[in-house]
Amino acid sequence: MNPSYDFAGQVALVTGASSGMGLATARAYAESGAAVVLTDINQGALRAAAAELSAAGHQVLPVVCDVADEASVAAAVRAGVEAFGRLDHAFNNAGIQVPPCDAADEPAEVFDRVNAINLRGVWACMKHELAQMRTQGSGAIVNNSSLGGLVGLPGRAAYHATKHGVIGLTRSAALEYAPRGIRINAICPGTIATPMVTDMIAKGELDLDLARANQPINRLGTPEEVAASVLWLTSPGAGFVTGVALPVDGGYTAQ
C-alpha cells in the first residue's frame, strides 16, 4: 500500500502525461487532491487521459505540448498558472527511447532528436517551472532520468548521454534553488512496464526475460511504483531531500 498525501489546494504539472509513468503520476496527484496540468504531444491520448480523470471528479487541464519546443513548454506552464493560479509540483517525465546502435554508426539526427526531447526538453520545462516557482518562493520538481543516467550499456550511448545530462541539470539547479525554498530531484527508473517498454519488446529491442533477470527483484516495475516515488519526493515528507538521483530500479544499480 502506498502512503497517502494531501495535496488539496496545490497544483501539479506532468509532462508525457497520457500514458505510462506520466499518467500514473498524474492520477496519483489527482487522487491526492491536486489540480493537475496534463501535457503531452499526443492530443488524442491526452484527451482520453484527461477525460478519465475528469470523470472521476478530479480537476485537470489538458495542454498539448511538445517539450522539444521551448515556446510550447512556456505556453503550457503559462496555461496551467492562468487556470489554477500557481504551480507547486512538476514531474518532467516526457522522453523517448531510440533503437540500440553502434556508437560509430549513430546518425546525428537521431542524437539530436533524443537530446531535444530527453535533455533539452527537461531543461526547458525546468526553466519555465522555476520562473513561476521562484515568484512563489516554493515548489518541488522531479525530473525523470533513468538507470541509464547512472550506468552505461552497449548500444545506448546517445540515450544514456541524455539521461546522465538530466542528473547534471538536476543537481546544479537544486543547489541554485535550495536557498529559495524550491527542491529539485531526479528519479532513475529501471525497466518499467509501460507502453514504451512493451513496444521495445515487440520490436526485439529489449529481451523481457533478460530485463527481469537484471533486476534483483526479478520483475518489471510498475508505473504506480514510479508515481509513488515522485509524490514522496514532492511531499513534505521529503522536505530535506534535494539534488538526489533516486534509483527506482528493483536493485539494478546496487549490483
UniProtKB/TrEMBL annotation:
The lineage of its organism: Bacteria, Bacillati, Actinomycetota, Actinomycetes, Propionibacteriales. It holds the Pfam family adh_short_C2. Keywords: Oxidoreductase. This is SDR family oxidoreductase. It comes from the Bacteria. CDD domains: SDR_c (cd05233). PANTHER family: DEHYDROGENASES, SHORT CHAIN (PTHR24321), ESTRADIOL 17-BETA-DEHYDROGENASE 8-RELATED (PTHR24321:SF8). Belongs to the short-chain dehydrogenases/reductases (SDR) family.
